[in-house]
Amino acid sequence: MSSLIANHLVKLSEGISVIICTFNGALKLKSTLDHLMKQKTDRLFSWEILLIDNSSTDNSLKIAKTYWAKKAPPNIKLTTIVETSAGKYYALQQGISHANYEFFVICDDDNWLHEDYLLSTFNILKNNPSIGAVGGYATGVTDAAEGFPNWFSKVCEGYAVGPQCKQTGYVSPNGHLWGAGLASRTLLYREIYSNWPSLLLKSTFSQVMTTEDTEFCYRLTLANYRLYYDESMKLSHFIPKEKLTIAYKTSLYANFIDSRHILSQYQLAIKITRWNNKHHYLKITHYFFIKLGCYLKLRVYKKKKNIDRQRLLLNWLKKTGGNRQDFLIDKILRKASSPHLSRLRH
Mean pLDDT score of the chain, rounded to an integer? Predict the structure, then answer.
């Protein structure tokens, strides 16, 4: 993957790579594949499916390949890949590194994309180069005999179910899209993670990796791309009864809370870069702030009113001394324009 990232002249074919990451999803994959078979693309583009097995023990790949070979249209290729490192983040990295098309859609093994989902995705991303990612509306489906519990409607967002915004349009700069059904640009994803692997990997709590979709959206925002929500893009999200317990819900939200200490740094960086852009001052990338660990220091600065925050920050950096190889301001400012990221838009 690194060789592809280093070559910024790489061009991918026009179309969509559907990324399915699965762990013991043999019982769910048939329904997911059935819905993909019904996609109506009006022959405007080509597409493929990349099925990444994240160390399953239930013959997920064999079952899926056999089922697809019997029922799928011959012109749609399904490629299977094995990723031994546990976690969706690693499976996604593996899948996107093998993608052959310029756009990709994350379709979890319990996501059922409606028939026009890929077509809508293609049109939005093709016609709007400033959009870094797009997501749609997810309807919850369950096998629980009694249906969804009464408390579900209050926490459905945590399960990636329901609307992601009040209406179709751009997502707030402080917002994000969930991973279920998220679509983005393949080369952009590779570029954004080329030199900076997920900061969530630094956490001592491996469960925080469930918020990798939020981190990706924050990185897109900091790279000056916009997030878009289209309520006409529909998918169904299957929630098994095992996940509709108080214990599971508590565990799910505990993972979100554990990731806050990292995601909050992204949120702060977004606020700072927005402030910089508004006043046409120095544009310092989010990686700079995170690397220096300025979070607590900048919180103090925010409390000091009527002070030039940029002058204060630069003065503080000069006083830090330390490893000058890392902290040289002129070196950082030369990187601030992120030329490779902006180049991907054209």
Answer: 80
Residue with tokens 């030329």: 339
Instruction: Confirm if 104 and 183 have CB atoms less than 8 A apart.
Output: yes
Rounded distance between C-alpha atoms, residue 21 and residue 52, angstroms: 5
Q: Assess whether pLDDT exceeds 50 at residue 106.
A: yes
Lowest mean pLDDT segment, chosen from 26-30, 138-142, 255-259, 334-338: 334-338
Print burial letters for 302-341: b (CB count within 10 Å at least 16), e (below 16). eeeeeeebbeebeeebeeeeeeeeebeeeebeeeeebebb
Locate tokens 């059922």: which residue?
112
Q: Beta strand pairing status for 13-22 and 169-170?
A: unpaired
Q: How far apart are CA 182 and CA 168, in angstroms?
A: 15
pLDDT digits (tens, 9 = 90+) for 166-214: 999 999 988 999 999 999 999 999 999 888 888 887 665 556 567 889 9
**Does residue 320 share a domain with residue 217?**
no
Of 259, 285, 301, the position where a domain reaches its end is 259
Full residue range of the structural domain in which residue 145 is found:
2-259
Look at residues 259, 284, 303 and tell me which one is the last residue of a structural domain. 259
Closest CA to 233 of 127, 123, 154, 153: 123
Q: What is the pLDDT of residues 121-145, one digit of tens each?
A: 999 999 999 999 999 999 999 999 9
Q: Which residues touch 236 (CB under 8 Å, ≥6 apart)?
A: 35, 111, 112, 114, 138, 139, 140, 141
Residue 336 carries which side chain, given as an amino acid letter?
Answer: A
* Angle CA 67–68–74, to nearest 5: 145
DSSP-derived pairing of the beta strands 111-113 and 46-53: unpaired
